[in-house]
Amino acid sequence: MSLDKQSVEMPLVAAMLNYKNENVYPLHTPGHKGGRGMKRLLHQEMGDSVLMDVSLMSELDDIHEPESYIKEGQALAARAYGSDACFWCVNGTSQAIHAMLLTALAPGERLLLPRNAHRSVAGGLILGGIEAVYLQPEYSEEFGLQLQVTPAAVQKALALDSSIKAVLLTSPNYYGIAADVQAIAEICHAHGAVLLVDEAHGPHLGFSQALPPSALQSGADACAQSTHKILGAMTQCSMLHMQGARLDLQRAADVMSILTTTSPNYLLMGSLDAARSQVQAHGKEMAEAAVAAAGKLRALCRAHAGLKVLEEADCGGLRLDSSKVMVNFANWGYTGVEVGEALRRARVAVELVDAQNVLFLVTYADVTKDYDEALARIDAVLKELERHKREPFQRASVGAVPVTSSAMKLRDVFYGKKRAVSLETAVGCVCGEQVSFYPPGIPVLLPGEIITQEIVDYCVAMKQLGLPVSGPADSELKTIRVVSE
User: Fold this and answer.
1) How far is 422 from 430, CA to CA, in rounded Å?
2) Do the beta carbons of residue 161 and residue 125 sit within 8 Å?
């Protein structure tokens, strides 16, 4: 998977540094002209990096028609991950997911996907006029979270509906639980369907046996990765990988060009180049460092009686990315929101909180004295909470997202007329917008689904917990848009 460490290069970064060091006067965009016109405070904080915030220069290649440095950088990324083609995404993994869907499916074709797919998938369905067939993932009452769809469920769905052209998985999910991608890939291909994987939380997989195998290693036809989430790229930097002959690479390039800005940020692309170089040379060591650092946090949490830490044994036979540390506070009677707030007061910010869990995201970067000091602050917070434990939650009653049913196609709702009504009076109406609690960004309601009393009650409960609402026009969710009669 990796090249000789001495030969790993950063072609785009080298070109950007060369342009910066030539001290060319910029009579071109961006308007701040290498920081000369930038607000002083921002310039001071950003430092010399603003000198590499450059425009589409012929010396630096064009992501829409890559012929030199970007082409070489993407080819190196494909080689590092074992794909046939890699496309850099500067609009996050949402862009990569949209590109996967528009490459694999034509308008009116059907996609099988878990109902807990990220909200960005719905955007791709609308853009492509793609019809969704949903599967419910397995559910863990012990932790109050959704796991993965099973190979048996995928097999049954494809056997019942031969018109399904593609299957999309989220693997690993936000909590680090990986699907049985290899088994599902074999099932998909036996039924003539392609397998697409939202691997946003897995750009570090495949470099060490300490972690689950990657989607590509397991036979997926394409995967979308958030390089910025786990590796060293800047925020909103992602990659789209494709392999095999089931997808048209030229179509993928055409789709990516449509979805990519004509003014891509070279600092973002350069950080993708650098992050790939780093993981290509040191991926095994990085993965093992992350697992070891997470192990220290896991041991700290397990030392507190009553706390339940998600382990691979809790995942129904599935692999777990153990650099994710999910801790359940139901036995102590605290919501994840309350624990997250207590930790933030102690100057520790966590990745995710929900009704009863807190998720800590640990990476190879957490090998510093600062991390050890943060662990000590976490321990102090846990000791304080432990001294004031409450009555335990009934786990099964908290966290399960209600099952929904669809009455209209997403695209029809998107272009149809909508009106706002109070959440309490929306029961029986057809939802006109997405409703998610973020993170993890899994839609409770999608456009076209029927609003039930159970769903309204769930939304009220999540609001009372203090979870932020994402998607609806009214961010407080006092009102919700529904389809007009």
Assistant:
1) 13
2) no
